[in-house]
Specification:
The protein folds into 6 domains: 5-107, PriA, 3(prime) DNA-binding domain (GIY-YIG endonuclease, 3-Layer(aba) Sandwich), CATH 3.40.1440; 116-180; 203-377, 3-Layer(aba) Sandwich (Rossmann fold); 388-430 and 489-625, 3-Layer(aba) Sandwich (Rossmann fold), CATH 3.40.50; 432-479, no CATH class; 635-727, Ribosomal protein S10 (Alpha-Beta Plaits). It is 31% helix and 23% strand. The protein contains 22 helices and 32 strands. Strands 11-12-10-13-14-9-15 form a 7-stranded parallel beta sheet, sandwiched between helices. A 6-stranded parallel beta sheet has the order 16-28-27-19-26-25, sandwiched between helices. It is globular, with a radius of gyration of 28 Å. It binds adenosine-5'-diphosphate and zinc ion (ZN) (2 copies). One zinc ion (ZN) is lined by residues 445, 447-448, 450, 463, 465-466, 468. Residues 436, 438-439, 441, 476, 478-479, 481 line the site of one zinc ion.
Length: 733
Amino acid sequence: MRPTIARVALPVPLDKQFDYLIPSHLFPIIGGRVSVPFGRQTLVGIVTEFAQESEFSIEQLKSVKEVLDSQPVWPDKLYSLLKWCSQFYQFPLGDTLANAMPSALRKGKPADFASCKEWQMTPSGSNQMMQGFGRAFKQAQVMNLLTSGAVSHSSLLEEDVSIATLKSLQEKGWIEVSEQKPQFKAWPKQIEADVEKPKLNQEQAIAIASVNSSKGFGCYLLEGVTGSGKTEVYLNLIKPVLEQGKQALVLVPEIGLTPQTINRFKKRFNVPVEVIHSGLNDTERLNAWLSARDKVAGIVIGTRSALLTPFADLGIIIVDEEHDSSYKQQDSLRYHARDVAVMRANQEQIPIVLGSATPALETLHNALTGKYHHLHLTERAGVAVPTRNRVLDVKGLYLESGLSAPLIADMRRHLTEGNQVLLFLNRRGFSPALMCHECGWIADCQRCDAYYTFHQYSNEIRCHHCGSQRPVIHQCQSCGSTQLVTVGVGTEQLEKQLAELFPEYKTIRIDRDSTRRKGSLESALTSIRRGEYQILIGTQMLAKGHHFPDVTLVALLDVDGSLYSSDFRASERLAQLFIQVAGRAGRASKPGEVILQTHHPEHSLLQDLLQRDYHHFALTALAERKLAMLPPYTYLTLFRAEANQSQMVEDFLRQVRHTLEAHPLFDQHCMVLGPTPAPLAKRAGKFRWQLLLQAEARSVMQKLLMSAKPAISMLPLASKVRWTLDIEPQDLS
Ligand code: ADP
Ligand code: ZN
Ligand code: ZN
């Protein structure tokens, strides 16, 4: 019998689906999109089920407006994975599915390749190339970008090319534009390009053989420092996969998606490589997505969201820098791309490789208990000498914008020898606070429980939590004094101080403020590599993915905050950062030195890390976690809630606590902590509280949440406060 009712998952924050009548001329399919009336809007949703009956009477039901797909949006396995995600992360199915679609599909556009504008050089343009472009630097930039073939309009804009420049080049007849659809081409017989490849060392060969021997699913932790040849292992693993006609997915952290990385994959193989990142426009994203689904692409490289790309025939998943915190989405569907990737590999029955120099404690635990296979790369190709590491006790020392005298002396020594120095300070702006010298009043954000950061460069004070900003103030708002002083040191102030201390050397600052413009990070990195700057100042942006062979001294200026943080993961993050920063420096002929300024040189974490290595630190940290009953030995869920009134938020979470504790599935191995005010107790005018649920087993946690959530949603206050669930949170703020 022809079904009369379609159950549709819609992108609305409700844990339910909606019934619509199917008009006789329409033929929706399960897993395909339909557009339906919803209130006064029309929404695009996914048909999840057919039914003959509804809990509503037929007269109350509205009808499906339009059927948008003749085949399901996702292959079966990915569709089940998305349903699993929705359950595991306690996020409404409709929202989850919408999250996983490229926005063009979310908006109801057809699931077909769309054509994109692309620019290419004309013959007369090539002629002009020989003669050069004189002082027309912008035009020269465009022409250089087009030398190796056509480039899409939007990627030119990403490179900061202006439309005016394109127009004027077009008028001169040097470039032309066309509309192109991605072309289907069978992959060539010879998959691997004719490029020079290093001869694998023994550890690499063992790693590759182990993964290749895996039948079906297998999860491999590939532990090796930067430069130990992990990427080379990935390339060798991908080769046979492509040769069998299967595809590969490579996930990289947000900051790791550099042109160098992408080029290594593109140069190595003769198959199309799709790159998926947040900078793509709707059309490009849809094309990349379809290209993977229809097997145009052999390899997809991308950041977190690339995990949810459909593949015709996926053969391997690689997660590089698996410990990186950008793999966890911090809003809406709060999934961890690494964890879901393992789930996906399991479902597809394929191998997955997690690579890192500093594995997350969760991952290491899985490797130590035998759940994952553990592979090691211990030799660092190229750089033979490890860095010399030293703790510098700054207790009682005068700090000049965060720099101690011994450090300044060390810097001078390295600079005089013609080397570069990298200073690491994870706080942007000039100073984290502006204080009245007379009465102690501190300029604070009215909307947050936080101080304003002073940005001297733009002459503003800004709140780093709600983003509000205002011109710098010159008078105390409490006593009227004009004696305002800065408290603490940010990267801007450090930059200024260095210009005074080392006027003969050039300093460059790399943080979110200095690299706002697209392409500016790349060009800064290039000038650093060319040696145009001797002193580099960076926040954690500079810690990842970039190698600076001429840097011989790295200093971490202020790590004490991480040693005594309320977030139990802070020390793990510091250890990872330390190893990464150290990995930036030096080469065989120029061994590096790493200095850590601290008031707590005796701290056991620092001792473990410096005297021994990350692995020993990790074992100690795991033992501490076990004693404290923290992940990976237990599982956490964080309830966050906020509203305009503090009391209401606290009351709501108290009721949540009672609901959980009274639940039959809540056993002696479960525990609730809180409610407590969030570390940032007020943000953008809202009061914030949180509640932590802890369970010894993942399955207990899941069943408990699934069964208790409807009751929690029914609490009278549930509709008055904004609340969210964060399953296995990475960040407790
Ligand atoms: P990782 O990904 O661990 O940082 P890479 O794979 O990028 O390491 O390797 C670092 C450098 O060493 C690269 O230039 C790479 O070409 C080179 N390399 C990798 N494996 C070998 C090897 N077995 N012999 C010589 N050079 C190698
Ligand atoms: Zn604020
Ligand atoms: Zn004052």
